[in-house]
Amino acid sequence: MSQEAPAQAVLGPSGPAPVGRSTRSGRPARKNARRRLVRTTRPWVLLSPALVLLAVLLLVPLVRVAQLSFQDYGLRELASGTTNYVGFANYLEILGSEFLWRTVLPNTVGFAFVCVVLTVTLGTVVALFLNTLGNTWRVLCSTAIMVAWAVPAVTGTYVLIWIFDPLNGLVANVLADVGIIEAGTVNWFTDRLGFYAIATLNVVHHGFPFIAITVLAGLMTVPTELYEAAKIDGAGAWRRFWKITVPMLKPVFAVVTILSTIWDFKVFTQIYLMPGGNGGNPAVFNLGVWSYIESFAQGKYGMGSAIAVLLTLILLSITVVYMRTLFKEEDL
């Protein structure tokens, strides 16, 4: 009995006692914790160089612009290195200005709205056309339209300035030859609507290839069986587009629309380089040009920074809508 009792105590009722189990079970737990830590920190370690670069190039200047927007900062403060904080005075002056509500904001919002509608519409039409072509012609035509995307905005703007030149431009000469106008009597750049009509043509021409290629990529993922079944049921091309193409490509249209809105809200080059856009004609200013003129032409860096902050807030709001749209589409 005395020998069986210790043996039973060692073996226990269900077998040998787990000698050293706590030590052995602690090692896998620590290994799993280290693995989780590595999996969590590894992406951030790999992204750290890019994040540091973005912080230096984007975050620091953004913080500096935000600081300047609360100051009455001009050439005197720039030369002396002093600061003159005025709180929200710059923002109150901007928001209380009739020039903002009657000229700058309508130019910015109206121009962006028209450009987005025309760009998305033209890009979709071109994508539908490319989708009907064979592989060889599709590649050739896609390459051709991408030339407009590859041309810098500066080059495209100067080409349109030459085309619509009031004296020797192509449009003025053609209209003069057919007797509609007299050469040199009409200057489209001085008129607000004419100015933005040319700018719209420039932006749409430069932006529609991105829409076309993106929508084309979406069209190529739509099963052809859906269109064949719709044809059998008697649906025409217009009905097939609205009942099949649009619902299937709704995420694509949402993305290209929001991206185009962001790009067209902050158009600067196409406006500034046109005659009158660099300060000679205040009636054609948008938020980007107005901020630049106030800062570097007038020497009111605080006021220009406040305008830039307002534009940034608008773009951030659009970006939030864009991100929420993407997340909703992923949830679907």
From TrEMBL:
Every ABC transmembrane type-1 domain range: 105-322
Sequence intervals crossing the membrane: 44-63, 109-130, 137-164, 195-220, 241-263, 301-323
UniProtKB keywords: Cell membrane, Membrane, Transmembrane, Transmembrane helix, Transport
Membrane topology: Multi-pass membrane protein
InterPro entries in the record: MetI-like, MetI-like_sf, UgpAE/MalFG_permease
Cellular component annotations (GO), alphabetically ordered: plasma membrane
Biological processes annotated in GO: transmembrane transport
Compartments (UniProt record): Cell membrane
Region entry Disordered, spans: 1-35
Main location: membrane
SUPFAM superfamilies the UniProt entry points to: MetI-like
Short name of one Pfam family: BPD_transp_1
PANTHER family for this protein: BLL4140 PROTEIN, DIACETYLCHITOBIOSE UPTAKE SYSTEM PERMEASE PROTEIN DASB
Protein family membership: Belongs to the binding-protein-dependent transport system permease family.
Name of this protein: ABC transporter permease subunit
Species this protein is from: Georgenia subflava
The organism's taxonomic lineage, starting at the top: Bacteria, Bacillati, Actinomycetota, Actinomycetes, Micrococcales
